[in-house]
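Title: Prediction job returns without error message
Component: structure pipeline
Severity: low
Priority: P3
Assignee: unassigned

Description:
Job completed but the reporter wants confirmation the result is attached to the right record. Sequence as submitted:
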Amino acid sequence: MGRYVVRGLVPVVAAGLLLAGCSAGSGAPGKAASATPSAPAAPSASASPGTAARGERIGAAGSPCPMPVSFDTARHWTAEKVAAAGDPELAELARQGPVTLVCEVDAKPAGHIGFLRVWTGAAKGKTAREALEAFVAAEENAYKARYHDTKAGALAATEVTYMVVSDLDDEQKDERAFAVTTPAGPVVVHLGGLDSAEHRAMLPAYELARGSVALAG
């Protein structure tokens, strides 16, 4: 253990996490995001460069990451449960808006630098859009957030695409996430990446996850 924790790509020494930030919705870099929904974006599937080969399914009891939802991961991507309880610093880093990081799926074994991360919340009254907007608004370096209603598997979902400005080199990179509601509360699934090129290369894994989402039995 002893990987770097990253929020907005600012390294902090910690154990077992690599947090990337998620997005907000202002029109310029460095400004706090507005929760006001923006114009709908084109469905992310149209931007996908290909189809990911199916690997492990996670989410059900007994899988690497028990969660309120289950979905297929891409071949060679490895899932790991995130447990920050008992470490105040880690617990703070593992929370964004109304949700807490519970699972990260690592793309490195598949040759990419990035993670698919799953965040869950206990606010059962929040809609998917409300949860996603609050999640994005909690990231200081996000802007140009664009929301649209979609489907995640058979579930109604809201998706957002946005940009994040790196604290390390001021470079802009693409991010996206989708949210669904479950009887246990909202779930946000986020894809970041080292840069926009890595993000685009990992889109098939994100689309595979989004297209195969179901309530965990």
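Comment from assignee: result matches the submitted record. The CA atoms of residues 60 and 217 lie 6 Å apart.
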